[in-house]
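User: What would this chain look like folded?
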Amino acid sequence: MSGWELFGDTSSDEGGESHPPVSIPVSTPLPDQRLPSTPVFTCRVSNEISGGLGLHAKTLILQGTEIHREKALIRCPNGHAAASEGDAIALHVDFIAKEFEKLPADGKELFMSLCNTVLTTAANSTYGIFQSNAVRLSGRDHLDGAVFPTFCRCNHSCRPNIRHQWRPDLQELLLYAVVDIQAGEEMYTTYNGGAWGQSSEASTKDRREYLMKHFGFHCMCRLCTESDALVDKCV
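Assistant: Here's the prediction, encoded as structure tokens.
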């Protein structure tokens, strides 16, 4: 029986950035060093047309600052040993459904409020939501993926201003600022999962094709629209 990988389209916490690397000590912050009780960001509508939500800074956030940390709402293996891919998908759907049933009522409500970009039936909508939002973990947990409901609200940019990092020792996902983020500015991660390394190293066409194939949207981030404007100017 083969171990079928069912988790190839979700964002990794090893994604590349188009900014210079930020020196973030691996050991910070320690478990007993808690974040400020008042969040430095808020979740609100980012796109008035689509009604999509996003994370926005409430105050100036300096480069290298830890913004947020959270534990997984649902966690599942990335793949399952099965005789065929179809059997593996069935096992994956069933595993996610069982993990969903373990959640308290408010956890179920929160999970079901997340987006679903996968065509699914009502019977396996939890599978679609998981596949649409899960992050591939790393380190000793690299065989698993998980959904983090706050991080799920973070939109994509090919020029991200935050980085997410899974900490196996804390069993938490941490978010850091990779540049200074101004009050009111939206916080963006990258969905590329390291597919093209540094975002600036791939063409706008290649980035957009990847994002459309795996996430179903035509990227209009600043890096892509700047490229469009440059092409228009040269025509």
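The chain has five helices and 13 strands. If you want, I can go into more detail on any region.
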